[in-house]
Amino acid sequence: MFLAGGLAAVTVALLVFGVVRARPPADPLPDHDGYLDRWSALHGGWRPTGVFPVGWFRVTYALAVRPARRGLHPHVVTGLGLALSAAVPLLGWAGGGWAMAAVPVLICCGLADSVDGAVAVMSGTASRFGAVLDSLSDRLGELLFLLALVAMGAPLALAVAAGVVGYLLEYVRARAAAVGMAGLGVVTVFERPIRIIVIAFAIFFAGAAQLAVHNGLPGVIAGTGTAFWLLLSLAGLGQILRAARSDLSER
After folding, report:
1. How many CB atoms are closer than 10 A to CB 93?
2. Global confidence as pTM
3. What is the spatial distance between Cα 249 and Cα 177, in angstroms, rounded to a whole number?
4. Most CB atoms within 10 A, among 90, 95, 110, 123?
5. What confidence tens digit (pLDDT) does each residue in 17-68 have?
6. CATH code, residues 2-22+30-248
C-alpha cells in the first residue's frame, strides 16, 4: 500500500508540474504528414510502412496533438509512462483480478512511450537528451514488466536471462547507430509494442488462472511468457547483428 500510495503521489505531482510549466508553442503544429516528415528526418530517413506501423503512428499523432498544443513537455509524458510501469509489478504481486487490471495499464505505458516522442517532434522540443531519457525509461519499464512476471511465479533466472538479452538487443542497436549504421538499422520481431503485448497476455492469463485456483498453472503461464520474451529477444538480437554487419561492412 505504501508503494501504491507513493506511485499515485508521483503521478499526481508529474501531472501538476506538467500543467504548471506548460507553454503553448509559438508555431502552428504540423499535420500528420508534416509530423511524419519531421519524425523521419530525426530517424535517418526511415518512414513507417505497413498497416500496423502506419496505424500506430496515426493513433499516437492523434493522442499527442492536444498535449503538444497545450505545451506539455515531453519529459513529463515520459515520467508518467514510467510511473505507470511501476504499477505493473504491484498489480502482478496482488494477483488475480488485480493482475488482469495491469493490461490497460500496460496499454497506457505503450501509448505514453510513443506519445512523448510525438509531442517532442510536433512541438519542436526533440533533443538528444530526451532520446536518452526516453530509452532509459523504456529499459527500466521493461525491467519492471519482467519483475511482474516473477511476482506471478516466473523463474527469476529465466527473467534475468530475458532481461539481459533484451538489453543486449538495444545496446547493440545503439552502438551500431553510434558508429554509423543508417537509420533504425532494422525493425526487429521484438520491438516495444510486441514486448508489451507479450507481457500483457502473460499477466492476464496468469491472473485468470489464479482466479480459477489452478495451483501451479499461474507460474507456468508467467514462465512461458518470460521464455517467449527471451526467444523473441534472441531473434531480434540476431536481426540487429545481421543488419549491422551488412550495413557497416559496406562503409
Report:
1. 15
2. 0.89
3. 13
4. 123
5. 777 778 888 888 999 999 999 988 887 777 877 777 788 899 999 999 999 9
6. 1.20.120.1760
